[in-house]
């Protein structure tokens, strides 16, 4: 152990404990993680101490991974499961125009709390946050199943999103942490496969249950699916087993959490409210909320910069560390995740919705249309991990994936107006899925390689949050396009009463005359075409952003494993000095 570290940790027992030799945080010595990662300097904020743990038994680790993976699957499944349910939900509650909030209420709270849950787990522990998230998710799901009105359903969906945020964040954090170091790439690829499968399985499962037993059963089945893994984690996950020593609750960045929540939720909220015409685009409310959302982003950056520079605030663990915000590669990965999430959720929601109106498909057939995308996504995630197994190839993979998204979205914009979808649509969806899968695995892997070990949880939380944030904005934009096309195409063809009925349930078009049915179908066709044009533009922007992830000598898996061994050795030394000082 170096003299510098000894001098920092041997002054007294109280000083050692306060400085993080056991608890991590204020004043604890940070270490140089090498030039291959985003790092903090020795005079930076306190670092969380790593400790070497005895490996969990193989069978127990497999069960823990399965339970955490189920949590991730449920979290993402419930974000998209309502895609094939919206028509039936709007018919029951007689409000199609507001039904988009069944999707957005969940995604907004999920995006708002993802980073907060990641940081909270640094203080309370991964196991505690994971089990609590299962409990919240289960209780809110039961509320959704029993909802007596659309407002109740939206409210419980928002609560469900809080639990989903915890399940999502804990999976992204604990898979790499609990896995043997030599299996980090494998488990990262597994995460990507789960993300891709869950996102596309949602509409398929939703369609099946809605058709044969009713949409409420989509939420009822969450009871056993969440209860069993939650209880198993409570029993099998060793107490306090995690790579990092916990930090104190007083070290959490509460202001940063509020700023991130406001900055992500407010813009999407008001954009959707303006889209469904609850507020005019030029109204004082709309403009004010958008301005406040923008100011929250500015305030967040300023606050994180202050935390990094003010010695009086170094005891606070930043919600979005400033050295991540100033890292070219990490910032590019964050923006790329946001843009790919936009394309992912927009496609998952709008492909089955278009088929239900244009092709008059039932929920099952509409959901089945996404099966090629599911297969392509799983393949893309596995391929992305394999390509970076020996050498870090995330840069070329991200660039190629952006091109795939742009091309496939452009071709899908030309779907013809026919009773049956063309055969090539299935192939194009598979290609789109491959592009999304490559994006998911590569950005997740990039965050693992580029961030410090002490920032692992927060970097994965940011990646998770930005993916859902982009998807939420994608859904909101698609609603704007759809409402605009309905208004421009149907106002001259339908009476005010018919238009109001259409807003309550689009299936009312089956009662319209042949000419009016054609006009209504054309509105959905045009809206989908514009949505795909938007996806092309977003994918091109993603390609430009991906260029900023280029590194002449990118960090490899092997170099990261070597860094981990050095960090564990230093953590053991610090813990040893602390215990000696106490004695």
Automatic annotation (TrEMBL):
Sections of the chain in a coiled coil: none
InterPro entries, A to Z: MFS, MFS_dom, MFS_trans_sf, Sugar_transporter_CS
Highest taxon of source: Eukaryota
Keyword annotations of the record: Membrane, Transmembrane, Transmembrane helix
Membrane topology, from the record: Multi-pass membrane protein
Cellular component, GO annotation: plasma membrane
TM region positions: 61-87, 99-117, 129-148, 154-173, 185-205, 217-237, 252-271, 283-303, 324-349, 369-388, 395-415, 427-448, 468-486, 530-550
Places the protein is found: Membrane
Name the UniProt record assigns to this protein: Major facilitator superfamily domain, general substrate transporter
Lineage: Eukaryota, Fungi, Dikarya, Ascomycota, Pezizomycotina
